[in-house]
Amino acid sequence: MSTKSKSIKSKTDFNQDERLKKISNLKILLNRPELGALGGAILVFIFFGIVAGDTGMFSAYGILNFLDVSANLGIIAIAAAMLMIGGEFDLSIGSMIGFAGICIAIPAIYWGWPLWMSIVFAFSMAVLVGYFNGILVVKTGLPSFIVTLAMLFILRGATLALTRLITGRTQVPGLRVLIENDPIAWIFATDSFKWVFTWLGSMNLIALRTDGTPLATGIPPSVIWFIALAILTTWILMKTRYGNWIFASGGDKNGANNVGVPVGRVKISLFIGTAVAATIFATIQVLDAGSADTMRGTLKELEAIAAAVVGGCLLTGGYGSAIGAAFGAIIFGTVSMGIFYTDVDTDWFKVFLGAMMLIAVIFNNYIRRKVTESK
Amino acid sequence: MSNYLVQFNNISKFFGKVIALKNVTMKLRKGEIMCLLGDNGAGKSTLIKTLAGVHRPDEGEIIFEGEKIIFDSPKDALDIGIATVYQDLALVPLMSVTRNFFMGREPLKGPPFLKTFDIEKANKIAAERMGQIGIDVRDPSQAVGTMSGGERQCLAISRAIYFGAKVLVLDEPTSALGVHQASVVLKYIVKAASQGLAVILITHNVHHAYPVGNSFTVLNRGRSLGTYEKKDISREKLLSMMAGGEELDKLEVELKEMNRISS
Fold first, then answer.
1. CA distances, A184 to each of A114, A189, B119 (Å)
2. What is the pLDDT of residues A287-346, one digit of tens each?
3. How many A×B Cβ pairs under 8 Å?
4. What CATH number should be reported for the domain holding residue B213?
5. What is the SS3 assignment for A87?
6. What was the ipTM of the complex prediction?
7. Is B227 inside any structural domain?
8. At CB < 8 Å, which residues of chain A contact B?
9. How many domains does chain B have?
10. Is A17 helix (H, G, I), strand (E, B) or coil?
11. B95 → closest Cβ in A23, A251, A373
12. Is the domain A40-368 a CATH 1.10.3470 member?
């Protein structure tokens, strides 16, 4: 009797385990691309919590400060991650930031356009630049690394040359007065949830200025954009047909084409995405600073790609996550600000950035081998 | 009207001066497996691409369900139900079984303009379809990269059938597989045919083709050496036709000569 039941039990066990051991939930989690970045972000917070916990880094003002920096980088990192999952690079993001900045400033200051029209103009230019990048890569079949590297120089050069030609200098100030009463500018220039901070201030829960208003006035627009973009892109990747096409285009261009995925269109749309994200970045910064600088955004494309890689994107495409890139940006933003609160010289930030990226690439490579391992 | 599902009559294809195919004729009934045999350079790839709608034949006609048709693109061929599974399988190893199964043809749900990829439904169908061919996909969200070569081949075939293939064109489905895996795939091909599909199996491996095929067409240098019913031809005869029998005979003689001299 007992032996019989035992043999049945072992048989069912055999059926379940014949091909694969049962995968624990932990292991499924370990296979998610953003896991490394999430773990890294938690480690960074723990580290600064210990080292700089009592310095004001984690006051309302301090938190908003490093979130603002993270969010700015995050906006372009998310777009760069989407493009990388689609199998391409965009090295012209940084130059596009500078270009978009003067596309807003010059018409608004020198040609007398209303600010909203200049902003619409900048976004139209972004769509054009992105489309041009995309169509070049798709039609010529050249590596996007080369095509967008050329665009990096062309855009930066044009930005500098045109600005000097029109204005005689390399900076265009005087935008701040135009923000008020503009129908569009507030989307990029208004702090949100001010009442929360006013209330917190009135309860003496956060630091106040001498005039009684809170030091931290509200959530900066960059943070709102960052969160909205992270949610939107994650939804696209996980839940929509277009998201599946992005993975497919980056994973195997020919295969995807053969089963009817419009690979060319997908890639072009992603290039437009990075250029538009660069313009969102530029608009927020230009309106915040009140001026456009031709050198704005220099090297930002590499930081965006680094954040995307730390977030789990493979350089070969077809794998990665938008939320991972968001965590990657938070890591970089937090460290770049947090380092001011420690005794460490800020010169070391770039060392950290490089080391972090190296670790991430090694880790990602290992994960990819795991994922594609044949039985 | 004939009882053939699809007929390729006197298909020729030229690339400039090169005659890639000349007067190739093949006819298939429902439920039949026709094996297309040929050595490297025999014109198999050109013929597949002509069947798949990539190339347009320069001469000859394609008759599908009694009607003459002309393909302008691979999509045309796919639309009427001629599905080609290429050697690269069009699978992305890093993507899940489900996402691969529905790649480019994802089921949608939700209101217009906010339609989302119905993953639950897709997972269910993918697991069900794979289950039918005896591949137990424990988790349809696992990456295709974790599957064996045979399983991937079956996934690609199963996908083509699910999306309405009536004629299945398989390009060397067993060439990269071991003996066991190949037999799993061949078994599945026979099963698909028994459900009423017409299968064109392209291979250079007679040992894989002979057990499953109903008829055999041998290609050599772009020309058909004829189509034979299984009862009319032996495995050995096929093999020697494919390799260009004379050449092998000549080789045998030469080898004997060499042995005689050296001994």
1. 10, 9, 38
2. 999 999 999 999 999 999 999 999 989 888 999 999 999 999 999 999 988 888 888 888
3. 89
4. 3.40.50.300
5. coil
6. 0.80
7. yes
8. 19-20, 23, 239-241, 243-245, 247-248, 251-252, 254-256, 258-261, 314, 318-319, 368, 371-375
9. 1
10. helix
11. A251
12. yes
